[in-house]
Specification:
This protein is α+β, with helices and mostly antiparallel strands and about 500 residues long. The chain is built from seven helices and 26 strands. The protein is elongated. Bound molecules: zinc ion (2 copies). The site of one zinc ion has 9 residues, from loops.
């Protein structure tokens, strides 16, 4: 027993050869197999999880090293590479898998715009002799929807699967502000605009602002001059290098629209000693007898403006040959609220210099048809926001809301579901039901004939409603659309 136990202990003289025997440690190497699938960076390094800016093209002009770290993060085509654990040529398959939370495009949407789709098909490959393969660029692409996530899986012939990290879909748009010389009422920050779009994975990147010529108001007649002035400023901005993914945001004073030659009449007794005649600028009472809201005179909006067109008096029973002109000096614009004298909606006429008579005064004036908060100019990358409305400053927050709305139009929000755009939402309406263009009535009943009453304004709950309603966010119906929308075409310069 004891002898057995110490059998190999040996003595000082014994060479204890048996104790030196080591068990050979062998690294067990299995058969060749798939090791990993990764996203590639443009410098050849590997990335595990990435943010992909799918609307951009694969161009260095969109790479800043931070937001877009390298050119392979731009575009909807995905650069992938697969590695095996040993050199040699091996077969494998790759599949792109969307996460369940991704946007669900309808069949109609997918039929209208191929950029809505991701590469669904599994593809088969063989590695190069080094046991790796960079997949052909055109093979895998992802959809347009912001916040969508994908994982790419590669499987070898033994059934072993490896996966990338998450690819998250983002969009990026540059903006440049065109600020009119000496216009001090522009919002100093568009942080709200940036925040609202960031929620939907649309990154708005601000470029240095440029100055343009001052225009106090832009009405229909001024549009061409405005665009010329804006273009001259824009052409000197960095936005030119970021086309077609750049939008110009111009600020102006008012965006009032003039209605020329508005006619009002009033019965009056005129002549020496007669009291001045007060004429409210409103349409004639309608069939129900209710008097429409008065209009404001075209006053205090632009230099050299003319609110007065003509005033005449015709005696009872007389005709136009009997008309007596009343000069502008006898006509004084009057505000209904003396605290806001810039808002005249009536005219006081001194009739004491006319011959004594009873008859009617016929007054023709230019009036404010309406005030617009902003404009999205069609067919280009220009939007415009007012910084004044109804002769008062437009709050910076409201300017932000208007920009969110007008940018929404640029991106195809409240779209009618045609062309490359997402489907029409259930709260969509157009001019036929009020306002100008396509908008969203979320918050109001789907059965209304119109959506442009004062009560509608209070009830509306989406930034894409047709009038400024103090909302900054997209509604539940518009959120899927702003996520789904394909921004890859960008915009032509205006
Ligand atoms: Zn609109
Ligand atoms: Zn909406």
């Amino acid at each position: 027993m004891a002898t057995t136990k110490f059998k190999n202990a040996g003595s000082a003289e014994t060479n204890p050869v048996e104790n030196k025997v080591r068990k050979e440690i062998r690294v067990k190497v299995g058969p060749p197999g798939i090791a990993r699938i990764v996203f590639l960076n443009s410098d050849g390094t590997e990335a595990n999880s990435v943010k992909q800016f799918v609307n951009l093209s694969e161009s260095d002009s969109f790479v800043d090293g931070k937001i877009v770290p390298n050119v392979y993060r731009a575009g909807n085509k995905i650069r992938l590479k697969v590695f095996f654990n040993k050199p040699g040529t091996y077969s494998f398959t790759v599949k792109c898998e969307p996460l369940d939370s991704n946007a669900q495009y309808t069949a109609g949407e997918l039929a209208r715009n191929p950029r809505f789709a991701y590469q669904k098909e599994q593809k088969s490959y063989t590695t190069g002799s080094d046991g790796s393969l960079a997949l052909p660029l055109d093979d895998f692409f992802v959809g347009a929807a912001g916040n969508d996530k994908y994982v790419f899986r590669a499987t070898d012939t033994r059934g072993v699967t490896v996966s990338t990290g998450i690819l998250e879909v983002h969009r990026l748009i540059y903006y440049v502000e065109l600020k009119m010389h000496s216009l001090t009422s522009c919002a100093s920050s568009l942080a709200l605009v940036e925040q609202v779009y960031a929620k939907h994975q649309i990154k708005l990147v601000k470029l240095p602002a440029v100055e343009m010529a001052y225009m106090p108001n832009i009405g229909y007649d001024d549009t061409e001059t405005f665009e010329t002035n804006a273009r001259s400023a824009y052409s000197k901005s960095l936005a030119v290098e970021k086309q077609p993914h750049a939008v110009a945001i111009a600020y102006t004073g008012h965006l009032a629209v003039k209605q020329k030659n508005f006619r009002v009449r009033k019965s009056a007794a005129v002549g020496p000693g007669s009291a001045p005649v007060l004429i409210t600028i409103a349409a004639e009472p309608d069939a129900s007898g209710s008097i429409p809201e008065p209009y404001f005179l075209w006053h205090g909006l632009e230099p050299g403006e003319r609110w007065f067109v003509s005033a005449r008096f015709i005696k009872a029973g007389g005709s136009t040959v009997d008309a007596i002109s009343i000069p502008v000096e006898k006509c004084t614009p009057l505000a209904s609220n003396s605290a806001i004298p810039q808002q005249p909606n009536a005219v006081r006429i001194d009739v004491s210099a006319l011959p004594l008579a009873i008859g009617k005064i016929y007054l023709v004036v230019n009036i404010v048809d309406r005030m617009r908060g902003g404009i999205s100019f069609s067919g280009g990358n220009l939007i415009c926001v007012c910084t004044k409305a109804w002769w008062s400053p437009f709050a910076p927050k409201t300017q932000n809301e208007v920009i969110i709305h007008e940018l929404g139009h640029k991106m195809g929000m409240a779209a009618n579901g045609s062309g490359k755009l997402p489907d029409k939402t259930v709260s969509w309406y157009d001019d036929a039901k009020g306002h100008r263009g396509n908008h969203c009535f979320y918050g109001l009943s789907a059965t209304q004939a119109r959506y442009d009453s004062d009560a509608d304004l209070d009830g509306s709950k989406c930034v894409m409603y047709g009038a400024t309603n103090d909302r900054s966010d997209f509604c539940l119906n518009c959120v899927p659309a702003v996520q789904k929308v394909d921004l890859s075409d960008g915009w032509d310069p205006f």
